Amino acid sequence: MSENVTEVIAGGAVLAAAVGFLLFAAQGTGLAASRGTYDLTASFQSAEGITVGTDVRLAGVKVGTISRLELNPQTFYADATLTLQDKVMLPDDSAALVSSEGLLGGNYIELRPGGSTENLPAGAEIEDTQGSVSLIGLLMKFVGQSAEDAIGE
Question: Start and end of every Mce/MlaD domain (predicted)?
Fold first, then answer.
């Protein structure tokens, strides 16, 4: 009988751990409902490297995530919904940029606050945006410029 009790306890512990991991994963991907947050929108010409669940950072500190990302068929821009913590109030002239953590790091949304005294209300749009920069495009531009310099000499 004690073998069955031990097996039930071990099974319950495994089940509780699995539920904990599922809840953690749902929260990380934005599937779980969050309290103390509000949404802002932003449109990017290129959203390469960002997805739902990507970090939104202010001064290097995570203050939110991307909760929705879709193509706008009228403008052909990527419309992103940023879910931010309530305690983070951005001026209405703030900017949102797709930034990289480094050469091999992932991308994230960087918020740069403006100097306005008015804050963006929930549901507002961040007008000043900059999409991701293609590393391959930059390298091709550099190589092309180097080749032109070599030919000119």
Answer: 37-114
